Amino acid sequence: MSETIALDLGSGPHPANPFKADRVIGIDSQAIGENVLNCWVGIETIPLENSSVDIVTAFDFLEHLPRSIWKEGEMTNPFIDTMSEIWRVLKPQGIFYARTPAFPHPECFQDPTHVNIITDTTVSYFARRPQIDGSLIDPWGLELGQRYGFKGQFLLLNQQWDHSHLIWRLQAEKN
User: Fold this and answer.
1) How far is the CA of 80 from the CAs of 3, 15, 26, in angstroms?
2) Are 113 and 70 a contacting pair, CB within 8 Å?
3) 55: which strand partners?
4) What is the 3-state secondary structure (H, E, C) of the chain?
5) Whether this model's pTM surpasses 0.90
6) Beta-strand pair 23-28/36-38
7) Can you give the pLDDT of all 175 residues of the chain as single tens digits?
8) Are 102 and 163 in contact (CB under 8 A)?
9) How many CB atoms are located within 10 Å of the residue 112 CB?
10) Which of 23, 34, 164, 168 has the most crowded Cβ, counting Cβ within 10 A?
11) Which of 114, 111, 126, 116 is nearest to 157 (CA)?
12) Nearest to 55 by CA among 152, 153, 169, 167
């Protein structure tokens, strides 16, 4: 059996490993520690190979990514770019697990560094959301996400509320 690798975005000096991967790599723009890479996620490319990790986690991280910025004379979308990068580094069928404060709860606004407000329909821009009968919730979502620059496709395995936080469990769909 091969080694499982997890990537924890916005890890600080101590990357989380809730899925008990054999190896965990943290990424943070300011923290340095054992197994922590320095990277401005959303601005820079995640410094890992395509399809190289089994699990990506993001705990209280997505809300800190700007939705739009000017970079080198053009408008870019760091949140969309991050979702593309997560998809890129995940192996086929790899899991993205995110936990973030979300609207309508006041916690999504209280921290002045929360600049990316997530709702329970934000996931539609990145993932197919099948209903029991096979039809899609928000079938327009992925098309719009790709029009906005998202490069990838996830399957929504689960979305649930944990008090003020929304939890996503997405699976990378790759050929």
Assistant:
1) 29, 23, 20
2) no
3) 6, 95
4) CCCCEEEEECCCCCCCCCCCCCEEEEEECCCCCCCEEECCECCECCCCCCCCEEEEEEECCHHHCCCCEEECCEEECHHHHHHHHHHHHEEEEEEEEEEEEECCCCHHHHCCCCCCCECCCHHHHCEECECCCCCECCCCHHHHHHHCCCCCCEEEEEEEEECCEEEEEEEECCC
5) yes
6) parallel
7) 689 999 999 999 999 999 999 999 999 998 778 899 999 999 999 999 999 999 999 999 999 999 999 988 999 999 999 999 999 999 999 999 999 999 999 999 999 999 999 999 999 999 999 888 988 888 888 999 999 999 999 999 999 999 999 999 999 999 8
8) no
9) 6
10) 168
11) 126
12) 169
CB 32 within 8 A of CB 12: no
Token output for 3: 């080694």
